[in-house]
Design brief:
Length: 489
C-alpha cells in the first residue's frame, strides 16, 4: 500500500444536472480502512467510485498513489477460471490461489472450469479473489451481494473481514456489519465519514437528525417572534408617519420602519437557515400496502419436491401458507428456490413428488427476477390509462426517495439499478392485492427503502411468498421459513 486518499474541494455534476451531485467535498480515507459506502439510490455511490478511478471529469483534487481496481469487471474472452485469475496476477503462485479458494469454500477443480459457466455466486467469489491476490490493489467493490445467497453473503463477509484496505458499496446491513470499520454516507446535502459499522452510523444519523429537528423547532419559534415584532414595529412607524406632519416625528417613524426592515432581514436569514437544516434530513415516508385479506389457505406441501431428470431438486418439504402469513423460501444458490416459486405461480409445469394444493387468489402482486432487467419509466407511464393511476405511481416513487424532478423527462434517462428496482416496486404496490409474490425485492434497494418495507409489511400484514437473501429484512418480516436442502440419495 502507498498512502491515503486525500480529497479536497471535490465538485461534480453530470451535464444534465442543474445542481451538483458533489460540492466542496473534503475527505481523508486511510489506506487500511474497511470502508462501507452507503446512501440512497441515485445519490452517487458508483459515481464516486468512477471519480476515484479518474473515469469522470471533476473539479478539486484527489491525491493518492493507491492502485484502484473496480469490481465487478467480467472477462470479455472465454477463459478458464485459472486463466481469469492469472490474467491480472501473472506472478501469483498456485498455492496462493488455492489458499484463497479455501477461504471462500470453493473446490480447487473450479480452476479448470469455464468461468462463464460458473454460477453468479461462484463468479462473484472468483472476481473478489482476483482483486485480493494483488496486494498492491485498493479494491472498489460495487454491490457484491446481488448474486450471493445467504450463506454466500456470510462467507464473503468473513473473507472481507480478513482483508484490509478497500471500499464496498452495499445496501445489506448484516453483510456490511460483518467487516466494515468505517462508513462513508452520502446524504442529501452532505457526506459523513464516521468510525464504526452501519449500526454506529444509524445511531449517529438519528442523533444528528433529532438535534436538527430540535434546532428547527427553535428556529420556527424565533422566526414567528421576529415576524410579529417586524409587523408591529412597521405598523407603529406607518401609524406615526400618517398621523403627523412634524419632521422629528416623521424621522422617528422612518427610523422605526428601517428597524422593521432589519428585523425582516434577520427573519429571512433564519428562514434560509431553517431550510438548510431540513434539506439534509432523510424524510422517509410511510409506505402503504393495499392489502386484501384472502379468505382461504393459499398452499400446502406434503413431502413435496420438484423432479429434474427423475431426481428431486431438493429434499422433500412440508409447509402451509395461511392468510396474513409471510413465507420465505431459503437455501443455497442453485437448490431450486426460483424454480419452486415459478411452480407456485404456475409459470412452469414440472414433474413432482409428494402432495401439493395451491389455491392462489386472483389479485396478485408479482415481482419477478426476470422482469428486473427490463425497466422503462416512460413506457410504464404511457401504459397507464387513468390520470389517477399515473399520479399514484409517481407518488409511490416519490415516497421511495425519487425526486419528482427526475420524472419531468424520463425518456432516454440513464437510471441506476436501485432506481430501476424502485420503479418495479412502485408498480408492484399499485392497486389492491391479496397475495404478494416477490423474488429478491431488496437487491439494489437502499437501506432507507428496506426500512420502509419492513415497517409497512409489519403494519399491513400482507400474505406473502418470497425469496430474499437480505438477512435483516427476512428476519424482520417473515412469519414462516422453509429451507430447501440439496437432495441426498
Amino acid at each position: 500500500m502507498k498512502g491515503n486518499i486525500i480529497i479536497k474541494s471535490l465538485c461534480f455534476k453530470y451535464i444534465s444536472m442543474i445542481n451538483p451531485m458533489f460540492q466542496d467535498v473534503n475527505l481523508n480515507i486511510h489506506e487500511s480502512w474497511k470502508l462501507g459506502l452507503v446512501g440512497r439510490n441515485g445519490r452517487g455511490k458508483t459515481t464516486f467510485l468512477k471519480i476515484l478511478m479518474d473515469q469522470l471529469d471533476y473539479e478539486g483534487s484527489i491525491h493518492s498513489n493507491l492502485e484502484f481496481e473496480y469490481f465487478p469487471i467480467y472477462p470479455e474472452k472465454d477463459l478458464t477460471t485459472l486463466d481469469v485469475l492469472l490474467e491480472r496476477n501473472p506472478l501469483v503462485e498456485i498455492w496462493e490461489i488455492e489458499r484463497e479458494l479455501n477461504y471462500m469454500e470453493l473446490s480447487h477443480d473450479i480452476l479448470y472450469r469455464n468461468f462463464n459457466q460458473l454460477s453468479g455466486g461462484e463468479q462473484t467469489k472468483i472476481l473478489l479473489i482476483e482483486l485480493f491476490l494483488d496486494d498492491q490493489a485498493f479494491p472498489l467493490i460495487d454491490e457484491p451481494t446481488n448474486n450471493l445467497d445467504l450463506h454466500g453473503r456470510q462467507m464473503v463477509g468473513q473473507y472481507l473481514n480478513n482483508k484490509t484496505g478497500y471500499i464496498v458499496v452495499s445496501h445489506d446491513e448484516y453483510f456490511l456489519n460483518q467487516f466494515v470499520d468505517h462508513i462513508l454516507a452520502i446524504n442529501k446535502e452532505s457526506i459523513d465519514l464516521i468510525a464504526g459499522d452501519v449500526d454506529t452510523w444509524k445511531t449517529e444519523k438519528e442523533r444528528a437528525d433529532r438535534l436538527t429537528k430540535e434546532k428547527n423547532e427553535k428556529l420556527k419559534g424565533e422566526i414567528k417572534r421576529l415576524d410579529q415584532v417586524s409587523r408591529q414595529v412597521n405598523n407603529w412607524g406607518l401609524q406615526r408617519e400618517n398621523s403627523t406632519k412634524d419632521s422629528s416625528e416623521r424621522r422617528l417613524a422612518a427610523k422605526q420602519m428601517k428597524r422593521a426592515k432589519a428585523i425582516r432581514k434577520r427573519t429571512e436569514e433564519k428562514v434560509i437557515e431553517k431550510e438548510e437544516l431540513i434539506d439534509n434530513i432523510e424524510e422517509v415516508s410511510k409506505l402503504k400496502f393495499n392489502v386484501v385479506r384472502p379468505q382461504k389457505q393459499i398452499l400446502s406441501f406434503r413431502e413435496f419436491s420438484i423432479l429434474r431428470g427423475g431426481v428431486p431438486l431438493f429434499s422433500p418439504i412440508n409447509v402451509d401458507l395461511y392468510p396474513s402469513e409471510r413465507l420465505f423460501i431459503e437455501g443455497h444458490n442453485g437448490v431450486g428456490k426460483s424454480t419452486l416459486l415459478n411452480f407456485i405461480i404456475g409459470e412452469e409445469k414440472l414433474e413432482t413428488i409428494g402432495e401439493y394444493d395451491i389455491k392462489l387468489p386472483e389479485q396478485q402482486s408479482v415481482l419477478h427476477q426476470k422482469n428486473q432487467g427490463r425497466v422503462d419509466l416512460h413506457s410504464y407511464l404511457q401504459s397507464m390509462t387513468s390520470k389517477e393511476e399515473k399520479e399514484e405511481y409517481l407518488y409511490l416513487l416519490h415516497q421511495l426517495g425519487m425526486s419528482r424532478k427526475l420524472f419531468s423527462s424520463p425518456q432516454g434517462k440513464q437510471w441506476s439499478s436501485g432506481e430501476k428496482k424502485k420503479m418495479l416496486l412502485a408498480k408492484a404496490l399499485l392497486n389492491h392485492h391479496q397475495l404478494f409474490i416477490w423474488d429478491e425485492v431488496t437487491n439494489s434497494l437502499d437501506l432507507f427503502v428496506i426500512y420502509q418495507l419492513i415497517d409497512a409489511i409489519n403494519d399491513y400484514q400482507p400474505t406473502m411468498i418470497s425469496v430474499d437473501h437480505n438477512e435483516h429484512y427476512v428476519d424482520a418480516v417473515a412469519t414462516k421459513k422453509v429451507l430447501l436442502d440439496p437432495y441426498n440419495k
